[in-house]
Amino acid sequence: MILALHHVQLAMPRGAEVRARAFYTGVLGFEETEKPEILKRRGGLWFVAAGAALHLGVEEPFVPARKAHPAFRVASLEAAKRRLVGRGIAFRDGEDLPGIRRIYLDDP
Length: 108
Description:
Order of helices and strands: EHEHEEHEE
Strand content: 15-25%
Number of domains: 1
Largest sheet: 4 strands, mixed
CATH class: Alpha Beta
Structural class: alpha+beta
């Protein structure tokens, strides 16, 4: 039935596009993709990286999700940490799982 995951959507507050764009493109390395004309009036942004699509949709009132999150695989966790530190992005070490090392960070 399911062929693939098409996209993940996360909520964002109205007017946060500039901060979100800087974070997802400048820090995480996503490429912004254009939203269809019919959806642009709603605000928000669409991104893609490594074949995965991430949509940020405006939600009012905005309430940050407590547990919902995307998880990204990186080539080197140490290199990713250095990149985050170099850009002033705080992160928290997560409890490792068998074969998986984890960190957590919050988007703006």
